[in-house]
Structures are given as structure tokens and as C-alpha cells.
Amino acid sequence: MSASAFRRHLTSRVMTALVVVLSFTAVLALVLILGNLVAKGASSIDWAFFTKSPVPAGQSGGGVANAIVGTAVVVGLAALIGVPIGVGAGMYLAEYGAGRLGFLVRFIADVLNGTPSIVVGIVGWTFIVKPTRHFSALAGSVALAILMIPMLARTTEEMVRLVPNSLREAALALGYPRWRTSLKIVARTAMGGIVTGCLVGIARIAGETAPLLFTALGNLNFTLNVNQPMQTLSLQIYVYATGPFDEWHRLAWASALVLMGLVLIISLAARWVTRQRYGSIR
Amino acid sequence: MVASANTRLRLETSRLTALFGQHRAVRDVTLLFPAHTVTAIIGPSGCGKSTLLRCLNRMHELTAGANVEGEVLLDNVNIYAPDVNPVELRRRIGMVFQRPTPFPTMSIYENVAAGLKVNGRRPRPEVDDAVSRALQQAALWDEVKDRLHTSALDLSGGQQQRLCIARAVAPQPEILLLDEPTASLDPAGTQRIEELCHALKRLYTIVIVTHNMQQAARVSDYTAFMYLGSLIEVGRTDEIFTKPKVEQTEAYITGRFG
Amino acid sequence: MTSLLGRDRSDRIYRRVLTGFALILPALILIILGVLFFNALPALKRFGPSFLWTSTWDPVAEVYGAAPMIFGTLASSLLALLIAVPLALSVAIFLTEFSPRWLRRPVAFLVELLAAIPSVVYGMWGIFVLIPFLRSYIVPPLKALFGWTPFLQGVFYGNSLLAGGVILAIMVVPYIAAVSREVLLAVPTSQREAALAMGATRWEAVRSAVLPYGRAGLIGAVILGLGRALGETMAVTMVIGNRHDISLSMLQPAYTMAAAIANEFSEATTATYQSALMEVGLVLFVLTVTVNAIARILIWRVARGAAVGSSAL
Asked: Which superfamily does C51-303 belong to?
């Protein structure tokens, strides 16, 4: 092998190694973070943790029951608002989005997907907190829904586009009108993927904090009233982690572990749905 | 070709031209499809035979920029008249495509019944009857009668295509359009479908597009040969294949081009 | 005999309904812009363009200048990109070019998981793990080597621009990696194969055939990451120190626009204070929308309108 060929191959080897090393450094960060979470949080998790509400500052014990339920309520309500709109917009993009309006909507959805979540919180504050003069879970849900809608629009569109055109044709040839083809055949075939997209979106907003800072605000007590401020796991972590008490820090780790667990479960459920669907297609 | 006094005409085209934008894919075709016969349309790739087929049930116009001139008459009514509802029309004409397209989220039963539901709800026993009748007509009944409610995707390719045929005939259309139905099947599957054509013409008028000349010879009563969008020759199948009148037809049939 | 007459109105209704849903998206962006702009109007009128380069932020005297926040936003994001881009591109290249098949799914899954970690959890990890680590193992050698530069002046107490930049880098890596990977996957294999067939080494094939082809998209991926970093709130506010101060030294506390809004919005008791924060929000929003729009245009050139980077992120 000539000298220059040797040098080229050596460069290739070196660059390959560099790429591999850097990749694993990045992945290492993940392992470290998750590892820390488990190590520092696991010991604090017991039954009381899940069932009790926070105790006064400085005291030990207490749990995050109100935060867990609050997360479910705020996220659930946000999904109720965001899923129909997001999926509907996604269906529009897939079925009728070839023209100029479709191009515009698609571009706006992509741009909205990068909006800072704190700005969305401001919108929720302006439209619900300000007129009603109090903070509420509803305001938080509206803010989270605004985050969800562009996300779901794009994932829904992508999933519906995957449905082969031959299926549409077969339905149309049977005498299905366009709307029925779109709903009963196309959407139904893409349903697994659409659900996956929704679950992924839900997992993402379950971890959001910024939009809730001045909408849902947080609440030390257990409540189910969406017109009142409500606590979520993410808010709880923020308060505890930035607080002065060691006891709070301990609870913050545990809460973070619970939140990560929740996000992980939903993400895995999303993958499981996809596998179910595509497992049966030849 | 002259229709004899005994054969009724269900379907015919009259100076039909099909366009994609400015491009004429079908040029000025006048073709008669006598009732209860099988007519094969043959020709090299790109001759417009599939496009012609898709004009018969107004599927052609679903492509952006596609247009039609001339007439297609179903029972002497022009299906392209402005007051005709294409959706309703397609319920009277069944179509089977090149690749089997069973609806993946539905069972065998639901697939066959899919075309029945568009006309409104029917009582369950009626649907059951229609499904079994259609599956029998498609020669699939014996193979699936014990697993009607399992996924349609579990069937083999040939079975799926017969399922599509069952789905197309379940609403009891008058015309059956087959667009290269055996193109993706193995010889055994192909043979079963060809046998079906003979059986089904008792009930329906069949138009089959095929790039396989031997298939046309086996299956059809009349054959139409198309080239570059124009109808070159049409006649009884045995005549076309033994004594073609036009030189181009003979050239195609003897394999001099294709 | 079934009638052939009549037209189906349901199709039109269906289309109208779906269009209605779709129109909510442009409405949203206008609403956000409108809310920010109208609420910021008093501040805009009062402070004018000097808002952007004044450094004083005094709620008592009601003088507001956003320069420190803008500086901090840009500086932390820039620092984040400097760290994140080599890491993220390596991951993307590794996954598409060099990785053995069995390793692909697990690594891709781990990267996706990194993206799924909530910002507040990153922030907490930043406070309790990263900052002590920086203080003990990273800053001393950095100061020893580069302490003479203006970038590493002063005492490191923990909450700093450096911590903000590092945590942003970690958060942005999976995002850039995922989008880059999708961009690289869109490069036709014929490009690689042609290079390899001409005798190029693995690395040369990547560098000369794949990367140039996907260059626009990769730059787009990086800019998308930038957009994400600019708007990041929780993790940043928990580690950056939250001080209205401009300093070239990474070891000093700093502030970002998003962090300022998060911290001060609830305390903004006067109309002017609130309006000033709204103006900060407006600047942030316009900045991120512009950056994202540029990124998307670049990515579209390569991926042709596919929904790149919208899943799991």
C-alpha cells in the first residue's frame, strides 16, 4: 500500500474512532442522568410518597399525590382540547393539503413546533388567568394544548400519508364518497400511527413546566377543580429543587424519577401500539 | 363490430377521449360492451387501456388535471352528464385492481361487506347472505368460511385478490372492471381468477385489461387492441387472434412489438 | 333502479370542517404575536429601540433594558452549539454510516430518551450534579490553562453562563442528532456507493459524498437546535444565576430572556414592569420564529417537506 493510501486509510480509521467516541460521550450523559435519578430518587419512593400531599416547609415526610393527580388532570384536559384540533389539522394536511393553504399551514406548524414554551404560558395567562383574575388548571391546559396542536398536526399528517393510495382508490371504486374514504378507510388504517403520535405528544407535555408557571401556578393541596390552581409533578420538582431544604431536594429527586417513569411508560406505550399495528401487515 | 340483435348493450363508449392536462391518453374510442360477455383490452404499455377502463367508472377524473371528452353510456344514459353522481355510479360498477388491496384493519367478512354499507344499514342476515354469496362467486368461500372474522391480511396474495373480487361483486354491480387482475399473482392464482371470469359473466358484464395476450385469448369473448391511445381493432377473440384485419394488430399479436 | 342523479354535500362539509381545524394553526401564530405585541406596546412606546441595548433593569425606578438578557440568550446558545454540534453530528453520522446494525435501534432509542427528559429534570440534575462536577473537575483545569483570557475571569460559584451553556448543550444534542440523522437518511445510497466504488475510504465517502449532499439539511438541523436552545427556560433558569449582567466571563452568572420571564412575571406588579417583560417575550418569539423558519427552509430543501424532527421531540 502506498504512503498516501495508508494515510487516507489511517485518517478514515481515526475519524471513525472519533465519531464513535463522541457518540458514546453523548449517550453517556443520558446514562449518567438516568442513573443519578434512580440512585438518588429511588430510596425516597414509598407508598406514602404516592398517596400523601406535601407537608409544611421544613418538615419531613409528605408526598406528591396532589402533583400526580394534578399532572393527570392538566395533561388530560390539554389532550381533550389539543388532540381533536391537532389530529383534524393533520388530516386536512394529508387529504387536502397539496395546495397553497396546505403549504402555509404545514410551514406554520413546523415553526410553531419550535416556539418557546414560556411564550405559550403568556398566552394562556392573557386569555384565562387575566380575565378570571385567578390562576387555574384550565389556563395551564390551554397553554399545553397550544403546544400539542402543531406537534400532532405534523405527526398525524405523516402517518396518514403512509396509507397507500391504492387503498383510497379501492374504496372510491366501491362507491365510497371522499369523506367516508377519508374517515372509514384512510384514518382507520392510520389509526395506530395517529395514536402513537398523540401519546408521544402527551408524554412531552407531561414534562412541561414553563407554560404552567403562571397559569396552573401550583398548589400545595389536593384539588380536582380545574378552575383552581393545580400542582403538577414538573412544578413540584421546580419548587423543591430550587428550595432551601435538604428534605425538599430529596423529594425533588424522587418526583423526578416518578415523572421520568411516567414519560417512559407513555413513550413505550406509543411504541407498543405501533408494533401491534405493523406486526400484522405483510 | 356489429352487435347482433340478440345481445343487449349495457355499456358502450362513444368517441371517448381521455386527457391528462393536454396529453391525450385515449383518443376518440368508440367501443361496445355487450351484456354478459367478457371483453379484453390488450395493447403494449402506455397504450391507454387502463386509462380507458378508469373512464368507465369515472375514476379517471380523480387524478388532478384529468379530463374526459365524449360519452360513456350505461343503459343509454351518459355517465358524464352533469346531473350524474359519480359516487352512485361507482356503486353500480365494480373494479378490481392490479395489486390486491384488502382493507388492512378489517376482517374478511368486513372487507366483503364494505361495499354494502355505503347504501345504508341493512339487517344482519341480509349482509350475511350477500357476503357468503359474493365469496362463493369468487370461489373463496370454502377456504375462508371458518374464519370470516379473522384479518384479511392473513390470506395469500391470490386469496386476497379473490377477496377483492368478492368485495367488488357483493353489491351486485352490473359491470365488473378488471385492471390486470393477475399481474401480481403466481400461475396457480392466475388460473383461478381466469376460471372465475368464465363463471362470473353469467351474472355481470366484464371488461378486463391485460398485458398478457394468451390470457386475453383464454378468457374473453371479444378483444379490443389499442395502441398509443387509439382503438386499432376490435372483434371476436378467435377472429382477432387468428385472422386480424389490421396489420398493426397482427404485428402485436405475433410479438413483433410489445 | 338506483338514481344516478344528485350531488353529495357531505364531502363539502367534511372538507370545510377539516379546513377549519387547519386554520387554527395560522390563527395561533397570529394570536401569540398579537398578545405579545399589544401587551408590549406601552413598553415599546416608552423605551423605544434602546430597550434592546440598555443594560439597566430596575423595577423600582421603572427603567428596563434587556441587553443582558439578550446577550445571555445568545451567548449561552452559542456556547451550547459549540459543544453540542460535534457531539450531535457524530451521533448522527455514527447511526447512519458506521454503526453495526444491531446497535442502531438501542442507540437511537437512548438518544430519543435523552430528548424526552423534561427540562426541569435537566435543571435539577444541573444544580445537584453538573455544577459540583464543573466546580471540582472542569473549571480548575480550564482556569489553569485559559485563566488569562477574558472568558474565564472571576470566581466560579456555580450558577454561571458556563453551566447554562453546558446544560443547554446536553439538551440540544439529541434534537440536532435526530434531525441530522433524518437528513442523512434522506441522502440516496447511490451517493455513498458511487464514492466507495471509486475507491474512497469509509470516512472519505461520508465527507465527500454524503455530507455535502445533506449540507443544507445539516445546517438546518443545527439552526433548529439553536432555535430550541434560544427558547429553553427551566433548565437554564435553574443553573445560570439569573443576574442582569453582561460579562464575557463564562464563570459569571448571567440571564436569558426566557429565564427572566419565568422568574419575574409573577412578581411584575406594575403595568410597565409587565409590559417590559412582554416586550422581552416579543423579542424572544420573533427571534425564535425567524431562526426556526430559516432552519425549516434549509431542511425542506433536503427532506422535501417530510415531517422531520416532529416526533418525540
From this structure: MetI-like (1.10.3720.10)
